[in-house]
Amino acid sequence: MKKILVASTALVAVAFAGQASASEPIKLSVGGFMEQWAGFSDEDGAGIDSEGRPNAFQSDTEVHFDGSTTLDNGIEIGATVQLEGETSDDQIDAQYLYVNGGFGRFEMGKNDSAADAMGIIAPAVGPVGVNDGDMSNWVDVYLIDTVRSSGTQNRVTYYTPILSGFRAGVSFADDSQANDETYNGINGAGDNIASAGLEYLGDFDGWSLGLSATGEESGDGAWYGFGANVGVGNFTVGGSYGHTEDDYGLNEDGQDLDAFDVGVSYTMDAASVSLSYGYEDFGTGDVQAVDLGLAYELGAGVAWQSSVFWFDEKNDTDPDNDGYGAVTGIRLDF
Which GO molecular function annotation, any one, does this entry have (predicted)? Predict the structure, then answer.
C-alpha cells in the first residue's frame, strides 16, 4: 500500500511539474445547511415511560468553506472545510484537499471513505429515515445501517474517471482514529482501514439505474454491501443489503450483523413522498422500522420535510422496545 501511495504521489507531482503559476488564486466560498426539527415520540420498553424521550426539538447545522483553482494544464485543485454548527467534541466535521483531472480524482485529509460516498440505499425524503438516519435521536432504538462506514478519518482516496457510467473508488486510512474524541494527530490507537467501492449510474429513455458494491476492511474484520435504485418516470424503487463480520473493528457487540432496506419514492413538481422499510439482525436481537417521508420545496434551498415512523426492537439481553413518532421541520441549503 505504501508503494502505491508513493507512486500515486509521484504521478501527480509530475503532472504539476513545469507549469507556470498563471492560474487564479483560490477564493473561498461559503455554503452548508441548517436543519431545525420539532416532533414527538411514544415508546414502551428499554426503561422509558410511555411518553417517550423528552426531546421535542432537534437541530443540525454545518458551515462549509470551499475553494478551488484550475491550473494551466487543466488540472483542478481545491479544498473543503466543514464546520459543525453545534457539537460537544470535534468542531471540524471534514477537511480535505482534492485534485481533479483526466486521471480521475484524488482526495487527502479528514473525510468519508469511498465506500461511504458510493453506497446506494433505498430512496427516502423525510428527516428521519430507517437506514443510518436520525431515528435514534427521537427514540431509544438500534440504528439500522447497511453502509457501516468508518466515519471521517485521515485518509487518501482515489476515484477513477467515469467510463460508460461506471466508476471505482479506493481509500486508505491510517490507525490514528481521527474521528475519536481522544485523537491527538500523533499516536495511533486503532486499525488501518482500506475501503473500496464500485458504482454504475445510467440514464436511459424514460428510466434510470443505480448500482453499488462497497466494503471496508479493518485489520481483523470487514463489512460489505450492495445497493440498487431504479427510476421509472416519477417513481424510484430501490434497496440495499449490508453484512458486518463479528470481528470488524467497529462492531462493539462482537456479532455478525445483517441488514437490509427497501423503499419507493414519488416526485411531482415540488413535492416528494417516500415509504421505506428497514430490518437488521444484530446477533442478540433484531429490529425493524418503517418511515413515511414527505418533502416540499418551498423555494430555492428551502424545503419543508416531515416523517411519520414506527419501530419494533426485540432483544435477548435488554428489554424489548417498540414505538412510533412524527417529526416536521425546515431544511435550508446555502
Answer: porin activity
Decide if 216 contacts 243 (C-beta within 8 A): no
What pairing do the DSSP bridges indicate for beta strands 57-70 and 92-101? unpaired
C-alpha grid cell for residue 37?
Answer: 426539527
Q: Where are the domains of the chain?
A: 2-333
**Contact between 104 and 160 (Cβ < 8 Å):** yes
Mean pLDDT (whole number) for 183-205: 79
CATH architecture of the region 2-333: Beta Barrel (2.40)
Burial class (CB in 10 A: 0-12, 13-18, 19+), 253: middle
How far is the C-alpha of 227 from the C-alpha of 242, rounded, in Å? 9
d(CA 109, CA 286): 36
* pLDDT value of residue 177: 58
DSSP assignment of 261-307 equals EEEEEEEETTEEEEEEEEEEE-SSEEEEEEEEEEEEEEETTEEEEEE
Do residues 115 and 216 lie in contact, with contact meaning Cβ atoms separated by under 8 Å?
yes
Mean pLDDT of 237-257: 79
pLDDT tens for 41-88 read 988 875 555 455 567 899 999 999 999 999 999 999 999 999 988 776
Q: The C-alpha cell of 249 is what? A: 473493528
- pLDDT level of residue 215 (50, 70, 90 thresholds): very high
